[in-house]
């Protein structure tokens, strides 16, 4: 029987603003992102006040990583310079590989009501940072959902969900970082023990209710738990909780970030800035 992964840190997100003034909770981002390798950013947006999101994210560039947008509620339209257009609604996922460069916008297609979801930045290895960009919209109906006998439910976006004899592959499989992205719904008095590969970095973000992590840590909504890289994971909730699980294989490469560019050296960042300025970005 494997031991439980140690809890390395429990931390709250920080209020932030991005795009043209969208208010959000920045859970991962900024200094010390090497601790979360291969994840570069996790933003939560959750509001019923249209003033917090209506300005959206006008056209802006990305290079060197992947972005994953997971919508829980609301409507957000994506457009990019490659001609891709997509509408994200509740339960949908957009998986965009910026690689050598994408210029895109994400604008709300609503003027009132709740807007709720997450955006995750996932690093690319050096060998893939200048590859061709890619884009994929995944409708909620295409994402596997596992319902367990204790009432728990798992939305299997990337990687796979495995517990005991239950194994379900997700909608997305990616090389190099082999990411897991699971939305865990725990009703009152339920438990979950997803099996994850040793060596993967594991992050748990409680976004609703309260969960007990590794039996002894009570974690309220709005807090991220960082676990070590070996062992098992145990979650439970007495009153009900929802938890976003991120796990991935660290790249262990240098990370140099300047705004929407994430490369391996300062010289590569400067080249990205020149390319964008000169109109040769993508």
From TrEMBL:
| Gene Ontology molecular-function annotations | metal ion binding
Q: Where does Fe cation bind?
A: 60, 62, 104, 106
What are the Pirin N-terminal domain coordinates in residue numbering? 22-122
Per the similarity annotation, which family is this? Belongs to the pirin family.
User: What is the protein name given in its UniProt record?
Assistant: Quercetin 2,3-dioxygenase
Names of required cofactors: Fe cation
Question: Boundaries of each Pirin C-terminal domain copy?
Answer: 182-281
The opening ranks of the lineage are: Bacteria, Pseudomonadati, Pseudomonadota, Gammaproteobacteria, Pseudomonadales
InterPro entries registered for this protein in UniProt: Pirin, Pirin_C_dom, Pirin_N_dom, RmlC-like_jellyroll, RmlC_Cupin_sf
Q: List keywords of the entry alphabetically.
A: Iron, Metal-binding
Pfam families (UniProt xref): Pirin (PF02678), Pirin_C (PF05726)
The record ties this protein, via Gene3D superfamilies, to: Jelly Rolls
- State the source organism's domain of life: Bacteria
Q: Is Metal-binding tagged as a keyword?
A: yes
**Which residues constitute the signal peptide according to the record?**
none
| The keyword Transmembrane appears for this protein | no
Coiled coil start-end: none
According to the record, cofactor stoichiometry and binding are noted as: Binds 1 Fe cation per subunit.
Bilayer-crossing regions: none
């Amino acid at each position: 029987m494997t031991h439980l992964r140690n809890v390395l840190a429990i931390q709250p997100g920080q209020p932030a603003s991005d795009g043209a003034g969208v208010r959000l909770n920045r859970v991962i981002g900024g200094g010390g992102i090497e601790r979360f390798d291969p994840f570069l950013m996790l933003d939560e947006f959750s509001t019923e006040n249209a003033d917090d999101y209506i300005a959206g994210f006008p056209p802006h560039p990305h290079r060197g990583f992947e972005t994953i947008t997971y919508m829980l509620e609301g409507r957000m339209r994506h457009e990019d310079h490659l001609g891709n257009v997509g509408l994200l609604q509740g339960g949908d996922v957009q998986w965009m590989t910026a690689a050598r460069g994408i210029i895109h916008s994400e604008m709300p297609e609503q003027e009132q009501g709740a807007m709720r979801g997450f955006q995750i930045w996932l690093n690319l290895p050096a060998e893939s940072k200048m590859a061709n960009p890619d884009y994929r919209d995944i409708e909620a109906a295409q994402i596997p959902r596992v319902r367990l006998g204790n009432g728990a439910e798992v939305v299997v976006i990337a990687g796979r969900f495995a517990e005991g004899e239950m194994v379900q592959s997700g909608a997305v499989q990616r090389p190099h970082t082999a990411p897991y992205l699971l939305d865990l719904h725990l009703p009152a008095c339920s438990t979950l023990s997803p099996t994850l590969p040793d060596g993967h970095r594991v992050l748990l973000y409680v976004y609703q209710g309260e969960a007990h992590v590794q039996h002894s840590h009570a974690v309220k909504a709005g807090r991220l738990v960082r676990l070590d890289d070996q062992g098992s994971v145990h979650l439970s909730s007495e009153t009900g909780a929802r938890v976003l699980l991120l796990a991935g294989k660290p790249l262990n490469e240098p990370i140099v970030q300047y705004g929407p560019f994430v490369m391996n050296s300062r010289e590569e960042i400067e080249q990205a800035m020149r390319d964008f300025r000169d109109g040769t970005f993508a």
